[in-house]
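Example record used in the benchmark description.
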Amino acid sequence: MPLLAPALITTGTITFVYALGSYEVAWLLGRAYPQPLSVLAYQLFTASDLSARPQALAVALITTGIAGIAVIIGVGLLRRVRVLS
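Model output (structure tokens):
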């Protein structure tokens, strides 16, 4: 298991960040409520009401922040198992 830890941490982080930002699968197969953040951001951005654009950008920034935090945690875990110096 110690030899698998770096690969599991890396693939887990990459998969989480990709799934967080993925629009297609969530829109086609997902539930209608609650909407995933990527679907909500897209629907707000493409809405005919232009006053929803700031909300769409806020949702996109929140999604980016969550992805950034996940990457920071993943790098921290990799440093903990001494893969990165």
